[in-house]
Amino acid sequence: AMSRPSDLPLDSGVLRFRPSAAYAELVGQTPPRTLRRPGAEEAARRTALLEVLLLDAARLAAEGRPAGRTVRDAATLRVMAWLDRVREHPADPVRLADAADACGLGRTRFADRVKALTGDSPIQYVNRMRVEHAAGRLTATAWPVGQIALDAGFESPRYFARVFRAFLGCTPTEYRGERRGIRDS
Predict the structure, then answer these.
(1) Could you identify which of 27, 57, 73, 121 might form a hypothetical disulfide with 67, taking C-beta atoms 3.0 to 4.6 angstroms apart as the criterion?
(2) Alpha carbon of 81 to those of 37, 85, 139, 145: distances in Å?
């Protein structure tokens, strides 16, 4: 069975990609199958690996990160998974020591990997994701700023306002007013 198409968001739209059966098998999306032609399995595996490398490079480009080495060690893959979790659930509590332990790294090495992958320290990255989440709420809802701060994972509306200003150059209230003015125009 052919696996379903994957979408990769790009600045110029969406790259629609239908993985080959060999790719789907390689990444565990389909049960193993046998190929009857001599050498066909090796060719299919090479094709699948090429697809993995191209998808990895396209994903990194879509995220604005340099492709660099696409072959990554297990710890770096765990750090990337942690970054994805934070991006998807920015309000979840984060402890650096717990994150480092979960990735099988010490705090310093964990922080170095996060910095290498994102350009931010772990707390900067978490705060950036929280501010992005809050910015979306500010424009999409009429919730009070304090409520949005708590919803985004900040423990204090005052700290939220300071971090928000550091990232976006204005207060949450100013941001909301500017965006509403743009939307109403």
Answers:
(1) 57
(2) 37, 6, 28, 30
